[in-house]
Design brief:
Layout lengths: L3 H11 L4 H8 L3 H8 L9 H14 L4 H11 L10 H6 L2 H29 L7 H6 L2 H6 L18 E6 L4 E7 L5 E8 L4 E5 L4 E5 L5 E5 L2 E2 L8 E6 L2 E3 L1
Antiparallel strand pairs: 1-4, 1-6, 2-3, 2-5, 5-8, 6-7, 8-9
């Protein structure tokens, strides 16, 4: 057992950083950094955020972030709080989709059988005879030509491009914004191993990563490579990733 807050403060002062310096580097608000150093857990926004802040802060100072997470889990964390698990949402609804498709097929078959019965009861229309066609006035025969209208097929819209961010080797704290660093934040927290996030790239995705090498990031089917070991920012677009 060790003191989380004092060890963070000691490591920061030993490296000559102020809370403002750390805020500029890792984008965690100064009041949250102070709360971590003073172990004032009630001032932090829940276990998921606190763990992400701890890992990012510790690794920025060159410390082992997982040790701080383990110590926090053992002493402080509320173990009944569920983490963000986006892929559970992706797994739901498969049974419902099969049920709706089955009901739709039954309805279509029933409609086809009913239509066939109505056609048989009404009787098929009489086909014109050769004599009737000869007896028709020439003016009628001259204008009774078929006009074939060919309709052009509508242009298909290009398939949207998605990015999939998956925690493979370890968990990583993430901050994700739409449109750039000053855009709307759509996710903040720790992405645990085995979980993933998926976003469309109609607009650029800006992302701050605490442990880049713990992640596999794909744009479409292309794997993003060249990520550093230290916390970093990356911008994802349809054309690729830039730092």
């Amino acid at each position: 057992m060790f003191q989380i807050g004092p060890s963070l403060r000691e490591a920061r002062t030993r490296r000559g950083f102020s809370p403002a310096d750390v805020h500029k580097a890792v984008r965690i608000r100064e009041r949250y950094l102070t709360a971590l150093e003073e172990e004032r857990w009630d001032m932090l926004p829940g276990d998921a955020y606190t763990k992400g802040f701890l890992r990012t802060y510790a690794e920025f100072l060159g410390l082992n972030g997982q040790l701080y997470i383990d110590e926090y889990n053992a002493r402080v964390a509320q173990h009944d709080e569920e983490p963000f698990v986006p892929e559970v949402l992706n797994r739901r609804g498969r049974g419902g989709g099969i049920l709706f498709r089955t009901i739709g097929a039954i309805v279509l078959v029933g409609a086809a059988v009913a239509g066939l019965a109505v056609w048989r009861d009404a009787g098929a229309p009489d086909r014109p005879t050769i004599d009737a066609a000869v007896a028709a006035p020439k003016a009628v025969r001259r204008h009774a030509t078929h006009v074939v209208v060919r309709r052009s097929k509508p242009a298909l819209a290009p398939k949207p491009t998605y990015t999939v961010i998956r925690a493979v080797r370890d968990g990583s704290w993430l901050s994700i914004r739409v449109g750039g660093q000053s855009g709307k934040e759509i996710f903040r927290g720790t992405l645990e191993p085995g979980h993933f996030l998926k976003y469309g790239l109609g607009r650029a995705i800006w992302m701050r990563m605490g442990r880049p090498l713990a992640l596999d990031i794909r744009i479409g089917k292309t794997l993003v490579t060249g990520l550093p070991a230290a916390p970093t920012n990356v911008v994802l677009t349809r054309d690729g990733a830039t730092r």
